[in-house]
Amino acid sequence: MPRKSTTSSTATAQPTAALKGEALQRRIAIKAYERYLDRGQLDGYDLDDWLAAEGLVLAELGDEAGEKD
């Protein structure tokens, strides 16, 4: 019986492996700051900006990992 491919479960782990530690934190921080600027520098949304930026960066990294395959 053929084995099922497990690439879908490993694909989500690859983005953080491609960029991790301080480099990942810096990329997220830059993206969060861009969101802050786009909103007109309105304070009080730092956590929202960080979480949204984190999602965007991880999605970008996932797309970049998919392009290499």
Layout of secondary structure:
Layout: H1 7-11, H2 14-18, H3 22-38, H4 46-68
Describe this structure in words.
By secondary structure, the chain is mainly alpha-helical. The chain has one domain. 72% of the residues lie in helices and 0% in strands. The protein has four helices and no strands. The chain has helices at residues 7-11, 14-18, 22-38, 46-68. Helix 3 crosses helix 4. The longest helix is centred in the last third of the chain and has 23 residues, at 46-68. The chain is elongated and about 40 Å long. The two termini are 26 Å apart. Residues 4-13 have low confidence and may be disordered.
The amount of beta strand, in percent, is under 5%
What number is the mean pLDDT? 79
Number of domains: 1
Largest sheet: none
Low-confidence stretches: 4-13
Structural class: mainly alpha
Q: What helical percentage do the residues reach?
A: over 70%
What's a quick, concise take on this entry?
The protein is mainly α. It is built from four helices and no strands.
Descriptors for this entry?
69 residues, mainly alpha, 4 helices, 72% helix, 0% strand
